[in-house]
Amino acid sequence: MKVSRMNEIFQQALPVLKEIESHGFEAYFVGGCVRDYYLNRDINDIDIAVSATPEEIKKIFKQTIDVGIDHGTVLVIHETGHFEVTTFRTDGEYSDSRRPDQVSFVRSLKEDLKRRDFTMNAMALSSSFELTDLFNGRRDIKNREIRTVGSPLERFNEDALRMLRAIRFVSQLDFNIEKDTYHAISASSSALSNVAVERKAAEVEKLLIGQAMDRSLAYAVDTGLSNFMPPLINAEITRQLKGKKWIALNFHERMVLILIIGHFSSLRECLSKWRFSNKRIKLLMLIHELVMIRQQREFLKTDIYYIGKENVEAAEKVYAVLSNQPVNTDHISACYSSMKIKNKSDLAFKGTHLIKWTGLKGGPWVKACTNQIETLILSEELENEVSEIKKWVQTKWLQK
User: Fold this and answer.
1) Mind listing the pLDDT tens digit for each residue in 261-291?
2) Nearest to residue 247, comparing CAs of 145, 327, 331?
3) Is 45 annotated as a binding-site member?
4) Closest by alpha carbon to 181, among 148, 210, 213?
5) Does the annotation flag 162 for ligand binding?
6) Quick one: which of 87, 148, 84, 144 has its CA closest to 116?
7) Is 118 helix (H, G, I), strand (E, B) or coil?
8) What Rg value do the Cα atoms of the chain yield, rounded?
9) Tens-digit pLDDT profile for residues 30-40
10) Among 27, 203, 235, 364, which is least packed by CB within 10 angstroms?
C-alpha cells in the first residue's frame, strides 16, 4: 500500500525530471525520498538533484522561486506540484561547523553524492527508477545501520549537527550506528557545542517522536553528545526509560515524561534553554502540573471542563506510563461525553442574567457565582435550564 503511494508521489515530480532531461541535463530523485522509498516508508518531500545550474533551471521552467540559490536550490512551480531542484555541487570548508563557506556547482552526480552525510541518504533514482548507489546505502538500509559517506571524522568536522542527526535517525528508523561512525561521534562530540541551540532543538524534537527514542537517547549519553546540549538527557533518564511503555505518547507527552523522570529543579529555566516558544513552555508546564495532580487523585469533570480534554488526556497518558499501567483514556472520553456542558458557550445564561436576577452591581461575585453554577451542572445537581438556574441564584446564592 505504501509503495503505491510513494510511486504516486514520484509520478507527480516525474514530469519535472523529464523536462530537465529533455534539455540535455541529468536529473535524479535524491536523499531522504530515495531512502524512504527503499524503507517502504511514507515520503513527505521530494528532492531533485540536477546537472543544470540554477540559471539554466530558471530558463527551462516558467515559474521558479529562489529559495536557496546561493547553495544551488530553486523551487520549481509546476502544474503537478512544487519541487525543490538543486544543482550538483561540492562543498568548501566548514569553518563554522555548520555550513560550507562556499559551494561549487559541478556536472557530476558522483561528486554531489560524495558530500552527503550518510550512505542511506546518498542514493539517487533516475526518471526510469534506476538506482545509483555508489556508497552501499541499500546494504546499510538492509543491515539497519547508519554509516557516514567516507570518513566519519571528516563528515562530522564539516557539520557537527550530523552527529545529532545520526542519533535522530536511530530513533526514527530503529537503526543502529555503525561502529566507526559511533567512535567518531564519541571523539567529536564536543563540536556539538558550536551548533546553535535552535538547530539542536529541531533535531531533538524529531528524535523525541521516533519509535526508538529510548535507544537514541542512550546513544546521546553514551557518546557524550548529551554533555553539549541544554539540560534534558542524562544517564538516569535513559536507564528509567528502558522499563517504560512510552510508545503511545506524542512529543509533548514524552517531553513531560522526561522532565518528570529527570527531576529538574526549574522546568521553565530548563525549557527556556532549548529556546522553546512561550506557548510551548506553558503547555508543557501545564501537562506537568496535571500529572502531579493525577498522582494525588483521579481527574474530575471540572478538570476536563476548565483545563481541556486534550490536556487532561495528555496528563493521564504520562501518568499511566510512569505508573507502568496501560495507556488508556477511554474513561476520560466517556466522562467528557456525559458532561452536560463542555465549555462556557454551552451555559444557558450569561453574566448579565445574574446581575438582572439579583439586582446587584457587577463584580468578582459574578465569576464566583458562575463557577459554582458550572460545578453544580457538571455534578448534575442543577439542570442547565434558565428557569432552574434563575431559581437557584435567587433562592440559594442570595441567601448566602
Assistant:
1) 999 889 999 999 999 999 999 999 999 999 9
2) 327
3) yes
4) 148
5) yes
6) 148
7) strand
8) 28
9) 999 999 999 99
10) 364
CB 108 within 8 A of CB 88: yes
Same domain, 12 and 132: yes
Q: 99 labelled as ligand-binding?
A: no
Is 116 marked as a binding-site residue?
Answer: yes
Is 280 labelled as part of a ligand binding site? no
Which amino acid is it at 75? L
Enumerate the H helices of the chain as residue ranges. 2-22, 32-39, 54-60, 109-114, 137-142, 152-158, 161-173, 179-188, 197-207, 213-223, 235-241, 251-262, 267-273, 278-294, 301-307, 309-322, 330-338, 351-358, 364-378, 386-392
297 annotated binding-site participant: no
Read off the amino acid at residue 256.
Answer: V
The pLDDT value given to residue 9:
85
Whether 85 contacts 53, CB under 8 Å:
no
Q: State whether 50 and 112 are in the same domain.
A: yes
The response to whether 139 counts as a known ligand-binding position is no
Which whole-number Å values give the CA distances from 334 to 50, 107, 298, 337, 383, in the listed order?
55, 62, 14, 5, 20
pTM comes to: 0.88
* Residue whose C-alpha is closest to residue 162's, from 184, 133, 132: 184
- 165: domain CATH number is 1.10.110.30
For residues 125 and 103, what is the distance between their CA atoms, to the nearest angstrom? Answer: 23
| C-alpha torsion sign, points 388, 389, 395, 396 | positive
Q: Which domain holds residue 36?
A: 1-143
SS3 93: coil
How many domains does the chain contain in total?
Answer: 4
Cα distance between residue 351 and residue 364, in whole Å: 11
- Pseudo-torsion of CA 289, 290, 292, 295, nearest 10°? 180
For residue 214 the three cell numbers come to 529510548
